[in-house]
């Protein structure tokens, strides 16, 4: 091999290596290049079962827990232990969360307040194909926020009569409190009727696939954190990003 041929070959090899490194870097920083998570949602019967017995019902139905454990931003490395499980009925979505974290707080005064500043779990979903997504956010004592819209700004809150139909149970009770420092385990159960998706008219989700993500945050806790079920490829904390939702397949 003469010098010119060797030099040309070397240049091609270096160019190929740089291209491969760029592709690798892009895949690492953009989860859209990865396979997004999917979850099958079991259908169960809620007949004569109150919200506080939802955890026992999901135990009986052998609905497994999923972890909310993705740390998306290096500036917020704290990772409490967070699990959720989900099922559906003829007229509602059932959610059950289990959380273990270093402190808890429940200051939000009422529904549609700043629950994300407390110890908070969240469920975002796109139940229809029109681009409108819902954020269902709930602090550790069941104070709830429900919003709808196509983007992060100008979101419409659900009216109180809609909020009142969402059944809630918390192992910490329902009274607000200032931050409690020290390891705490808590659970939350929600029965979310389809009427909570107040911009749409749903009778059931049987056989449907919807895009969704689950989160855990606590903006004003001693140790702020922002965890997700499906990874988020953005530079700064932001849960209002449907492009990073996974998929829920309803039986």
UniProtKB/TrEMBL annotation:
<keyword id="KW-0732">Signal</keyword>
<dbReference type="GO" id="GO:0030246">
    <property type="term" value="F:carbohydrate binding"/>
</dbReference>
<feature type="signal peptide">
    <location>
        <begin position="1"/>
        <end position="28"/>
    </location>
</feature>
<dbReference type="InterPro" id="IPR010502">
    <property type="entry name" value="Carb-bd_dom_fam9"/>
</dbReference>
<dbReference type="Pfam" id="PF16011">
    <property type="entry name" value="CBM9_2"/>
</dbReference>
<protein>
    <recommendedName>
        <fullName>Carbohydrate-binding domain-containing protein</fullName>
    </recommendedName>
</protein>
<dbReference type="GO" id="GO:0004553">
    <property type="term" value="F:hydrolase activity, hydrolyzing O-glycosyl compounds"/>
</dbReference>
<dbReference type="GO" id="GO:0016052">
    <property type="term" value="P:carbohydrate catabolic process"/>
</dbReference>
<feature type="domain" description="Carbohydrate-binding">
    <location>
        <begin position="53"/>
        <end position="250"/>
    </location>
</feature>
């Amino acid at each position: 091999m003469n010098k010119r041929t060797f030099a040309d070959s070397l240049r091609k090899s270096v160019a190929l290596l740089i291209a491969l490194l760029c592709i690798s870097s892009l895949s690492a920083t953009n989860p859209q290049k990865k396979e997004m998570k999917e979850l099958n949602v079991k259908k169960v019967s809620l007949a004569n079962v109150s919200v506080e017995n939802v955890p026992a019902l999901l135990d009986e139905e052998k609905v497994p827990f999923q972890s909310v454990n993705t740390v998306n931003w290096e500036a917020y490395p704290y990772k409490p232990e967070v699990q959720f499980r989900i099922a559906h009925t003829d007229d509602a979505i059932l959610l059950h969360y289990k959380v273990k974290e270093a402190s808890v707080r429940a200051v939000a005064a009422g529904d549609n307040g700043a629950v994300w500043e407390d110890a908070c779990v969240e469920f975002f979903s796109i139940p229809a194909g029109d681009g409108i997504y819902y954020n269902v956010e709930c602090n550790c004592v069941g104070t709830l926020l429900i919003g709808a819209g196509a983007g992060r700004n100008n979101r419409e809150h659900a009216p109180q009569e809609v909020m009142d139909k969402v059944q809630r149970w918390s192992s910490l009770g329902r009274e607000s409190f200032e931050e409690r420092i020290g390891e705490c385990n808590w659970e939350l159960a929600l029965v979310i009727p389809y009427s909570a998706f107040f911009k749409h008219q749903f009778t059931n989700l049987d056989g449907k696939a919807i895009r969704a993500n689950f989160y855990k945050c606590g903006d004003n806790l001693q140790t702020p954190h922002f965890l997700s079920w499906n990874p988020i490829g953005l530079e700064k904390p932001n849960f209002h990003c449907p492009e990073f939702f996974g998929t829920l397949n309803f039986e």
